[in-house]
Each structure stands twice: as C-alpha cells, then as structure tokens.
Fold these 3 entries.
Entry 1:
Amino acid sequence: MASQDNVSRSEAPNASDSRIALAKVALVTGITGQDGSYLTEFLLQKGYEVHGLIRRSSNYNTQRINHIYVDPHNANKARMKLHYADLSDASSLRRWLDVIKPDEVYNLAAQSHVAVSFEIPDYTADVVATGALRLLEAVRSHMADNGRNIKYYQAGSSEMFGSTPPPQSETTPFHPRSPYAASKCAAHWYTVNYREAYGLYACNGILFNHESPRRGENFVTRKITRALGRIKVGLQTKLFLGNIQASRDWGFAGDYVEAMWLMLQQEKPDDYVVATEESHTVEQFLEVSFGYLGLSWKDHVEIDKRYFRPTEVDNLKGDASKAKEALKWKPKVGFEQLVKMMVDEDLEMAKREKVLVDAGYIDAQQQP
Ligand code: NDP
Ligand code: GDR
C-alpha cells in the first residue's frame, strides 16, 4: 500500500536522483482519481517515470494506485513516485516542477462533481480554474528559468458545451451550466492563452463522460452499478436517483487516457474532442445494467428531487472526427461492454461485502 509516510517531502533527497536513464518523465496531478490511475498505468507501460501530486487527506486516498505502487525504498524498481502538493498551493506546484523536471505535465486534478460544484462554487473555481492557471504559470516560469520545454495537457470537459445542442465538436460554442463547467471553460481559455502568448505546447482534451469500475461512487453510472450489485445479493432494495432523462456520451476511461497521451505526441499543440459519438439516457443505462442481471430497474429505482441540479445539461453527444483523423484514436469499448464491465466488478464487490456482513464484521446499513 502507498503509505502517506512514503510520500516524498521537500526536504527528502532530490526526487529525480533515481531518474531512470533516458526514460521520459511525466508529472500527473489528480493521480489518485479514476483517470490518474489509468493514465499512470498507461505511461508506466510506455516506459515513463511517473510522478504524481497527491493532496493530504485524513484517510489514505491512494486506493486506485496501490496495485502499481512500489515502495520508494526499492528505488531501482519504483517508477511511480508520489509527492504532496495541492492545486490551491502555487509554491508546491513550482517546487515539484523544479525538482522533478518533467517532460510532460497532465493536469487531471479537480473538484470534478458537477452537482457538488453548486454547493462549493468558490472552492470549485479555486481548484478547477485558478488551479489550472497556477500550474500553467508554474510551468511557464520553470521553463523560462531553466531553459527547458514541457508539454502540458489540460483535462477539459464536455460539460463546457452545457446547453448547446449535439453533436458537439471543437468548434461548438460553450454554454456552461454549473460552477464546475464555467471553471473548466476558464481553464480551457487559460490553456489556449498560454499557448498563444508564450508558445507553450499546451493541449485541451475536451473529454466526454468516461467511466470504469474505478469511477467515483457518486457519479451516476457507478452509483447505479454499485447499488445493483448490492440489490442482487440482498444488501439493498432501493436506489434513489435524480433526472434519468439526461443523455450522455459514455466511454471507457482506459481508452480515453490514450488520447490524452497522443495529444502530447503531435508536432503542434491543439485541442481535441474525445467521445464515442453515441449517446444514451440514464434510463437506458438502468435498462441495460439491471437487464444484464435479470432484474427490472422499475422495481428498485425511486426518483428523489434532491439529486436534480439547478441547471441541467440535457444532451451530450460528441463529434470526435478530429481526434480520429489527427490522432488516429478511436474508442475500443462500446456502451454495452462498458456497462457489463462495471456491473461484473460491482457484483463481485457486493459478494465480498455480503460475506463480511453475514459474518457480522460490517453493518449493511452503513454502506453507501
Ligand atoms: P476524479 O474525481 O476521480 O479525480 C480527481 C482527482 O483530483 C483526485 O485525484 C483528487 O484527489 C484530485 N484533487 C481534487 N482536488 C485537488 C486539489 N485541490 N489539489 C490536488 N488534487 C486534487 O476525476 P476523474 O479522474 O474522473 O477526472 C479527471 C479529470 O478529468 C478531472 O479534472 C475532471 O474534471 C476531468 N474530466 C473527467 C471526465 C470524466 O468523465 N471522468 C470527463 C471530462 C473531464 P483525491 O483522490 O484526494 O480526491
Ligand atoms: P456529469 O456526471 O454531471 O455528466 O459529470 P454524473 O454521473 O454526475 O451525472 C450524469 C447525469 O446523470 C444525472 N443523474 C445523476 N447524477 C448523479 N451524480 N447522481 C444521481 O443520483 C443522478 N441521477 C441522475 C445527472 O443529473 C446528469 O445529468 C461527469 C464528471 O465526471 C465531470 O467531472 C465531467 O467533466 C463530465 O462527466 C463530462
């Protein structure tokens, strides 16, 4: 397990001392998130040394990367290294850039929950918008002071299109519908500006929803598959949801991280939409997932107005022709395969949970 004690501190020996000769070096913010974990696996497979910035939390927050963690005391084998930093702390970003000297920076960190951004708008803007600006400025000043080049990836979102009707491409106007989406628009334009003003190799990936068994449990797909597994094994009976008529273009996170990397391997920096070009409603996700386990969602789902948003994004469906043409990227996992992958994993998790509940080790009511 990646212990907080093993996360390097600024007074620790230079983090790049054990740099693997000739390996490219990537710095990933948001490494403990869904995309951070898939991107790190992908980059390690490509031979990169990967440095992740993690924020301090009262509980371990490294569950998604524990399986690829190697204790740094075993320095010859450890190609993923973790450091404390925060997008709200500019000095930490600049310090780690100076120590790590990355070739590529992937800015994935965010308060990424759209509904929560209505509850904590100021914090969301600070991390998502100003956080991106802090990191861009740290990259710019590090490059100027050290005569180095860094390629920068910004995690943009289809939420920026908001109420603009589909299909949405790179030329579709933004009309954000939440503090989160407005903050992502700011981060998008900061990135474009740093590219134009300073010649920085900076790309915006405008990614449509992408899911996986590692998706956070309060996003709708995972909330459904997690509840479904528990319903199937008898740990839960009801699932409370909000607007199930919303439509999303859902892909597999493992496919999308490849597109992030491809954007940084081109001759010139640019912005790209990444999507499956298929859209499904939340209700269709319920149909396919419950149907797969031989259940009817109508027997279990109740609509709870608490999950409705003050302003909703009704319909997202990407046009990814530019990424297909220029990056030669295309998604490998389709909608039904994605749903089944998530249901299979969450059913196994529910079965393990059931063993613990039956043995009296945990209380079924205490689970999400
Ligand atoms: P997650 O919510 O799973 O991960 C977010 C990451 O950001 C976590 O590692 C989190 O740390 C970290 N983080 C949050 N706040 C801070 C902070 N103040 N300083 C440093 N790190 C912080 O998101 P995803 O992996 O799903 O998404 C990755 C990025 O892509 C995000 O920017 C998201 O907005 C964007 N995006 C995601 C899409 C999707 O469908 N998944 C689609 C389009 C864009 P911790 O683990 O401690 O919480
Ligand atoms: P989204 O994802 O807002 O698209 O943002 P989410 O899964 O939260 O919502 C998708 C749609 O489902 C509806 N919905 C519910 N959503 C949640 N979370 N919980 C519910 O109970 C529920 N019931 C219905 C929502 O109203 C919405 O229409 C995700 C995040 O990963 C962002 O960071 C990213 O930028 C975008 O995808 C692209």
Entry 2:
Amino acid sequence: MTSRLITGIGELVTNDPAAGDGGPLGPVRGAALVLDGERVAWVGPAGSAPPADARVDVEGRCVIPGFVDSHAHLVFAGDRVEEFSARMAGRPYAAGGIRTTVAATRAAGDADLAATAGRLVAEALRQGTTTMEIKSGYGLTVDDEARSLAVAARFTPETTFLGAHVVPAEFADDPGGYVDLVTGPMLEACAPHARWVDVFCEAGAFEADAARAVLRAGQARGLGARVHANQLGPGPGAQVAAEVGAASADHCTHLSADDVTALRDAGVVATLLPLVEFSTRSPYPDARGLLDAGLTVALACDCNPGSAFSTSMPLVVALAVREMRMTPAEAVWSATAGGAAALRRDDVGTLRAGSRADLVVLDAPTHAFLAYRPGVPLTFAVWRAGRPAYAAAG
Ligand code: NIG
Ligand code: FE
C-alpha cells in the first residue's frame, strides 16, 4: 500500500466542523492530506504533514470531497428529447411520460441497459461524483425490475427498488393489483439486489395508502425507505416519509409548514433536485426556508430521461446558489455531506482521517467558483477510494 501526500492545496473543504475555521465546510487553508490505501489517513496544516511514500502538488487548487449524488435513475433505454422540446414549447410535465421509457426499457437487453448506465456513471465521475445512488423503476414487471437492479448493482451499492414509479398500462384498471405485485413477488425478486425502497407518491402515480404499503413492505424486507415527495404539487408524500422514518424525502418542491415540521422532527433529509425544475421550467423548492427551519438539505441530480437528463453536480450547485438562495458553502455541503446523510453514510462526503479517500481537485482556488463559473468544466482531477479515477486532459 502506498501513502500519498497531497499538498499545494489552495483551499481544502473537509466538511468537518472540527477542522479549520469551524464553518460548515471546515475549510483549511495551507492544508495537506495524506491518503493511505482507500482512506484519508491525515488532514492538517502542510507544515506538519507526516512523511508519505509519494507526493502530489495540486498547485493552489481547491480540493473538495467527491460529490455524493443520492438520487439517479440510470437504468433505462431511449430518450425523451421530443417530450423535452414540446415542454419547452409550453406543454406541462406530467408523470405519465415515464411509461414511454418503460416500453423502451422492457425491449432493451441487459447489455444495452448496462452500457447506458455505465456511460452515465462515467460522465458523472468526470464531473466529480464519486458516490451515486441508482434506482430501478422503468421495468415495472418482476423480471424487468429485478434485472434493472442487477444492472444498477454493477455500478453502486446504493441501489433502490422503485417498482412503485407509476402504475404500468397493463394495470390501469387494477392499480391495487399492481401494489400487491410490488409488495409481493416483485419485492421478493428485487430485495436481494437493493439497499433501498422508494415510491413516487404523487397524483398520477401512488396515493398515500399505496405509498405506505410499499415502503412498509420494503422495510419489513430489510430495505431503507426514501420517497419521491411533493414534486408536482402539494400532497401526502412528505408526511408519509416522516411517518415511516424514511432516510430522505426527495423533490420537496411543494411543502406546507406542517410538512417541513414533520420532516425535521422525524430527521428526514430533504433532497432537492433543481435540475428538474430547470428542465421542466417549474418553480424551485424553497431551500432557504428549509435550511432556516433547521432541516438537513441534500442536493442531487435526479438524472433520468424525462424530467432532468443531466449528471452534473456542479450545475446543481450553481442552480442551488443562483436560483434557490443557498450560499456556495451550503450548496457544496449539501452536494457532498448532505448526500451522504441522505444515504445514511458516514464514510463519504467528508475529508477527515478515516473517510474514504474520494476527492475532487477543482481547477479553481475556492469552492465558490463552482457557482461563480456555471457551465465551465472545473474538474481537474478525481480520486476515488484513494486512486486516481479521472484527470482532465492537457
Ligand atoms: O424523479 N418523479 C418521478 N420520477 C422521475 C421522473 C422520471 C421520468 O420522467 O422518467 C423524477 O423526476
Ligand atoms: Fe427521481
């Protein structure tokens, strides 16, 4: 095992309040890091760094933890660019578009699904994402959901069973029968490949009782719960998430004051997905209000072919700052440590002794440049589990 000293760091974002000036990012100026194997072994002032086998000088660049993207739908076939163009011409976004992708996904072989997911995971890595959750949800039969999760598990341990994404066309007259399938044979087939269970609790998808049944069944099978909640309008999703003790309520675009209180009191992370509002031309969630109310906020991409076809966490950070009134420090925390909280992980999203050595070297002196220079590729290098995983050309 080789230890490496990373030095010449202009600003180090640790997300460790005990480090540096005690702010939420715990930035340390003039800092160095020592990586040993897969882990961070030491963080502190460069002048007191312990000896290491090798040395990497990042020449004044900022180093942040790798992004933790806690919400993505990467197992699908085809695209919906025509739906996007129609939406930009004024047609509203609706949950039913998911069925278009379901038909294409069912017709695709495992190798094609894996190739698409792998391409998107690699695209995300080039933008600094080192941990990614991946959901099923475009198969909606026992076999298609199980093989979707088997594909997802090739890329991440953070796999989520989303059989309750929409009611497929063949169950249009029997939505209760579909919930029975999801909570019975489909869950049995999928649970071995999944860490989480999720449900799209929304008008046009699943109402509160069905959502509760799906989440409770998943929990009884040992899966953690997460919920697509209050995306398209007010509804019961956030309350259901609080009631079942979900790790995260995702979207949270239309929350009442009671919803906010319920999420906070139940310790549910609010995961905001501003690329969805960007790509569906909709009002953004009230990040400022959630933060001021004391919730833990995560930021994620929700990459999917319908509502947000992007893997760019830097763009998410820029949107969160510009459109949702988060400070750059809050947005970077939410895109790293916040995502880790949403996945109930304590080994990623931070850079302190013992953390997994997942880090991004930005071609910029401070984290604020992620929002200050929107749309500009600022990834200089990415390290994952202590190994170089990406380096910008030239
Ligand atoms: O998170 N909300 C439900 N699911 C996805 C959209 C999926 C699609 O439109 O294909 C989302 O936005
Ligand atoms: Fe989603």
Entry 3:
Amino acid sequence: MFTSDPNSHGKRLLAVSAAVADEQRPALRSIDGLDEHTRTPAVEVARLRKTYAGGVEAVKGIDFTVAPGEVFGLLGPNGAGKSTTIGMLTTTVVPSSGSARLAGYDVATQPLLARGVSSVVFQDSVVDGALSGQANLDVHARLWGVPAPRAKRRIEELVDAVGLSDLMARPVATYSGGQRRRLEIARALVSSPRVLFLDEPTVGLDPRIRHELLDAIVGLRARENMTIVVTTHYLDEAQRLCDRVAIIHEGRIVSLDSPEALLAGLGPEILEFRVDGSTDAPLAALRERGIARADAFAVGARVTVPLHEHAASDALAAIESERLHVTEIATRIPTLDDVYLQLTGARIAEAA
Ligand code: ADP
C-alpha cells in the first residue's frame, strides 16, 4: 500500500534495521544480564518416542527440559529406556517421533550442531588402551580442533580435577576401571561441551571406586558449571548428583522433580514390616484405620507404609489391636528407593 507520508520510507528503514539488530541480539548480553546461552534450555525433549525395528517400544513419548547448569538424572531399572533416550539425544539412535534439542539445536535436523555442543561418556570404553592417558586426551583435543595452547591448559586442569595427574604417562590398559572412567570423563570435557551425557557412569565399579568417581563428578560440576544428563539405576547416585530426577519406567516418565520434593511426597517417616503370607489383609486393615494411605505398598512379603502425619506409635497400636502377625517392624526416613517402588509397584499391580 502506498502512503503519502514523506517519512514513511525512513520509518520502514528504521524498522528493518531494528529487526536485523534483533536477530543479532543473541550475541549480546540482554538487560537482565542473561545471555542467549543462559536463556536457551540446555536440553528440550518433547513427545519423544522410539520404537525399534521389530516393534519394541523403548521410549513411549517423554517430555522434559533441562536448564543450563542443571544436573538432570534419568533413573530407572534396566530396560526402562534410559540408554535409548541418551542415544537419541546424542544422535546415535534416530527418534521415531517427537523432538529433542540441545542448546536449541534439533538432534534430527541439526545433528552436527547438536553434537558440537555436547559430549557423551558411554558405558563401553572408547579410550585407546595402548596409548597413554595423555596421548588419548591430546588426540581427542586435536580431533575436536581445540587450539594446542588451550588444549594443553584444558587437559592439565581436567586431569587435575579428576585426580589422574600422576598416571598420564602410563598406557590406559594399566588403569583400574575407576581410573579409566575418570579419564573418559576428562576426555569428554576437553571440548568444553555445553551438555555432558553420562550413561550409567559407575556401572561395574566396586562401591568404594563408585564413591570416588561420584566425588570427581561432583567436583567437576562445581568447577565447570556445566549441564549434565546422567542415567543411572542407582538411587543413591541420583540423590547425590542430581538437581532433578525423571523416574523412567517402561519407556515413560512416571515422576519428575527434585530428589527432595520426590522424598517429601512420602512424608517424614516410613514404617516397614514383614508379613508371613499375604500382605493384602494387613494393608487393608491399616488403610481402614486411616494409618495407611493410597501410597502404602507391598513388595514381596515386605509392607511399606509412609506415615505422613501419624506417629509410629499409632501405627504400632493399630497393628497390635488388629492382631496382625508381623515381624521386623522398623521405622526409617524415606529414600528414592521407596519413591520408585511405590510408583512402579503400583503400576505393576495395575497391569496384573
Ligand atoms: P535402559 O538403558 O534403561 O536399560 P534401554 O534403552 O537400553 O534401557 O532399552 C529399552 C528397551 O529397548 C529394552 O526392552 C531393550 O531390550 C530394547 N532395546 C534397546 N536397544 C535395542 C535395539 N537396538 N533393538 C531392539 N530393541 C532394543
């Protein structure tokens, strides 16, 4: 449409240059002090699904977002769909539908960019056993095009952070399982990724080494302020490392929150006991008396009752007056194990 306003052309030019400036703005710091990297979610997953050839529905439509700097856990037993999810996020498994973005880059349509901002430590070793730790990291830095002086500094820092400085000249074949895993994590960080994926980082390690490795990851996290997505079937690991945890069961997220919030849902204390025979009658009796809520559950012969506002003494009195034959009665604080068992136990019961 034509206009007689003599200033309109100038106004349009101003509008165009403002729009260009807008597009360039991601490189600039915005007024609230957050730059574009800080604003864009590190990971955005929407309705993501994977059905393998042959029909196994490994991931059945999951959604989650991970903020920059967050440590996010995918927690579930073997076969839950954790590795498939990590595979899709790291572009090694093609999603059947839905989308996943890393720092804004779509893993399906922009796989190179998505890979460029992330690193992964898989369960299987990828370091070269014949080479020294130092050579492994040097080769990786060259592959990623990290400039030599920066790579030298970065490798020194990382090796120090994971406690391997004394071992760097030795062939990796002589490392223990825990040392090798720490080297793999350092290797993954050489490229300064925005998102680090750790797939079952402590699997196969003995308990002491597991704790050492977890310490190393916690230390790195504090230093690097990076985003970590970690899969695990160890509940204590999720509780120790993660800001938020998605509990995965049979390809679906059944709960997603901070470990504290997940635990708070079960109240401050749990009563647990064993039953000889069926657990149905004692559970029903405690429910009738209002001691047990819907979140009480049984696994095998063991009954778990989150007490919420009730005192343990009320529960014991109820057990006594109902003449329930129970043994090994104890109270304790809830763990993520209870959260998981409660959620998945309920589902298994539903399906039965
Ligand atoms: P998790 O990492 O939680 O143990 P996975 O993602 O490895 O779970 O597996 C989820 C399901 O998908 C399992 O039933 C597994 O057997 C199946 N699965 C995994 N990889 C493949 C594949 N390449 N082909 C067919 N089925 C697979």
